[in-house]
Target: LacI family transcriptional regulator
Amino acid sequence: MVTIYDIAKKANVSPMTVSRVINNAPNIRNKTREKVEIAIKELGYIPNSAARSLISNQTKTLGLILTDISNPFFSKIARGAEDAAVQMGYRVLMSNTDEDSEKEINYIDMMLSARVDGVLIAPTSDKTLEQIERFKRHHIPVVLIDRLIEGFTGDYVLGDSYEGSRKLVEHLIDNGHHNIALINGPSNVSTARERKRGYIETLKLNDLPVYEHYISEIDYRNIEEDSAKIIVDRLIRSEPEKRPTAIFAANNFIAISVMKAVKELGLQVPKDISVVCFDEVEPVVYFDPFFTVAAQPANEMGKIGIQFLMERVEQKQVISQRKVVLPPDIHIRKSTRKINSRFSRKGET
Amino acid sequence: MVTIYDIAKKANVSPMTVSRVINNAPNIRNKTREKVEIAIKELGYIPNSAARSLISNQTKTLGLILTDISNPFFSKIARGAEDAAVQMGYRVLMSNTDEDSEKEINYIDMMLSARVDGVLIAPTSDKTLEQIERFKRHHIPVVLIDRLIEGFTGDYVLGDSYEGSRKLVEHLIDNGHHNIALINGPSNVSTARERKRGYIETLKLNDLPVYEHYISEIDYRNIEEDSAKIIVDRLIRSEPEKRPTAIFAANNFIAISVMKAVKELGLQVPKDISVVCFDEVEPVVYFDPFFTVAAQPANEMGKIGIQFLMERVEQKQVISQRKVVLPPDIHIRKSTRKINSRFSRKGET
DNA sequence: ATGAAAGCGCTAACAA
DNA sequence: TTGTTAGCGCTTTCAT
Model:
């Protein structure tokens, strides 16, 4: 490996001068600089980041902890984050926790030993707070993305799950749906809680009853399995007047499982049942927009998350906590249809 | 920051003993080990990777250079690669070149200065070979994924583009299509060349003419723009007997643009025109399998790529070049249909 | 404008 | 079994 000593020897200067050249320090004679630069080119010298880190106490590396980069929502966050990081001269270490808190701990160990300068994380659950404390102890800034943890102090960037749910459910109600089921994510994740809150409050505001048997949860880790089908099956087999006419799937993955289940049960969307969900279902949407969704600006979220993080890392204006909650875009498409309400609402004639 | 010196002081041993404990060295008295471990726990010590790298000359970090992680094909490669890397105790630095060779060079600089122990790369074009040489000069192993470069010596993992094209086109021909257009990727990428070769040879083997005006290329960087539409428009407006009855889109992104264009031109797939492509169009495929595709095992490719890389990095059996070409799975679905050939093939009665 | 010395956190090599 | 010394590649500090 070529070092500044090799360059120094070749250029007939001291290692310190080489260091000055590669750091664009002032007060260097042009001729000296040229000599050094030529030697660098000829030997193909590239500074050793590890040695620099050791002195500067910064690695110019950021940690990105997401649950699954092959989920389009997260891969967009990753893209937005990576682009923003590189633009500011930082590298990105990626990881996939698969919603598994043990994997998450291992990745956090990894990030800690890599001495990342900051971390952007979508926590697997509220329990992650303890792990985040570990970063705090090492004075490593942490920004939360997509998911909030109560008691967390620091910046975060979320989609507005409550508002998105409100609008999605409102849309269903406006189209005559009074029997709306919610298939939610696990309640130890903030987005799921907020979506449920939006769902319940919207029903109540519209004088619609909230049925416990309409609400179920799926652990994200089991979506691939038959959990969605079991739920959809149960919902559909209930007595005709209790059968939901619409399903609110908490995210795109759940929506897909629901679609599959509905189909396997011989029913059609939206003819027999309407479906809405969070997050865009790509890339179909580009040529055949089907799902009625609350689309979150994932790329933007990643970008803002890194910007916040960088400001903490570079200790610019260390303003107080920044809480950004981005509104989702509601797209009304073909997975929902107007129906004739089977029952009138309270107060309706 | 806590160092081995802090631990040493607290545990009343020398820094070297601490080093031995954290490295699980033999010949340490149990009691000493315990003392040290307690101090480590209490102070929350985590070894500094940079310092270790400086001595060991390895960073336990791998570089992953892909074109765009928000493309499902590549995000699956990334997942497979990341999982495999972590399992072997390595970290992964990610990057997105966007098919841009300048960005690619910057990322390669980054990887070089990060002193990654190895690189898994899907090169933007054949020109990347020079850049790969830079890794070679620094004795950093490189494994190619998805795309091959002529003249490259080393391991690679590809999908079988030639074979996939053969089967896709064969399928179209079997269904009466004699007028098949190819909308390809740029010919400085190996997959595009191989797909074209498969297309042409299959036509020839079936005594079908190869028309130059049926073959076009799209730069991956412009897919979002109207390039596909312009091509589809031209194809469709040609004289009736020259109008293709099927389009072979080189990948899923192109296929989506084609679908969009076909729709905007008021036509339907597969009624008016059949469409086939490479790579699965997810996640629709899970509930509404539509596209007839040659699906490549992306996750597997990433995993194998990292395995090969690791063997080079850890200099196990440094066997000669390993060339893995994985066959795609052909899925016949609803985007293609049987038609009555408008003209008989040469030799047919 | 340039150089020498010291040290970042760790470990290899040797010594005790 | 444990400790001492030196040095990985670089930069900070202080000279010159």
Notes: The longest strand of chain A covers residues 61-66.
